[in-house]
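Weekly sync, protein design subgroup
Attendees: M.S., D.O., the rotation student, P.L. (late)

Item 1: inverse folding check
M.S. brought a backbone from last month's batch and wanted to see whether the design step gives back something sensible before we order anything. D.O. pointed out we never logged the input encoding, so this time it goes straight into the notes. Structure tokens as presented (175 positions):
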């Protein structure tokens, strides 16, 4: 942990809770960008992975690199997850996030940062590891599923973004 448990845990858990509460609203706003949902899914995953990996970094590279060396592997993992979601036509983002979080806990126990840790440490850290995997995956998965539904015509299409962000705030036609 970079800043210590009193800062790092609330950053990840608080960020997850905010994403959990507003995931659909965030996803519909992100889907205003005119890119395919899979592209938005992957692009959105990058900063979330970097943020989470910088907080829960390995001692070998913690604080010494801007882009974590685990990024390519996690992006492949996220891409495969998105492919499975599209292939299986998953509609329940929370269920997929839960399964991915459980997968992440087992990944960390057998191949990742919890290899060789005592059982009590694994029991204490497993919920936090699960929240970390959920933090990285929930909002991108919501964008993917909502974008797929929007393309299929099942929901209202989000309005396209017009102009610069400052213009959007001052545009009187939007009121």
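Designed sequence read out in the meeting:
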């Amino acid at each position: 942990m970079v800043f210590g448990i009193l800062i790092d845990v609330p950053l990840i858990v608080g960020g997850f809770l905010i994403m959990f509460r507003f995931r659909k609203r965030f996803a519909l706003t992100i889907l205003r960008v005119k890119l395919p949902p899979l592209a938005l899914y992957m692009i959105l995953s990058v900063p979330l992975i970097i943020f989470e990996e910088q907080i829960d970094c390995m001692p070998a590279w913690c604080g010494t690199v801007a882009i974590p060396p685990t990024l390519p592997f996690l992006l492949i993992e996220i891409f495969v997850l998105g492919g499975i979601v599209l292939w299986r036509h998953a509609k329940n983002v929370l269920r997929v996030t839960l399964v991915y979080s459980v997968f992440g806990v087992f990944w960390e126990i057998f191949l990742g940062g919890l290899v060789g840790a005592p059982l009590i440490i694994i029991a204490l850290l497993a919920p936090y590891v699960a929240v970390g995997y959920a933090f990285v995956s929930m909002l991108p998965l919501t964008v993917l599923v909502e974008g797929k539904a929007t393309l299929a015509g099942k929901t209202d299409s989000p309005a396209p973004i017009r102009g610069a962000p400052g213009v959007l705030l001052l545009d009187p036609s939007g009121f």
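Discussion: The radius of gyration is 18 Å. Confidence is low (pLDDT under 50) at residues 166-175.
Action: P.L. to compare against the previous round before Friday.
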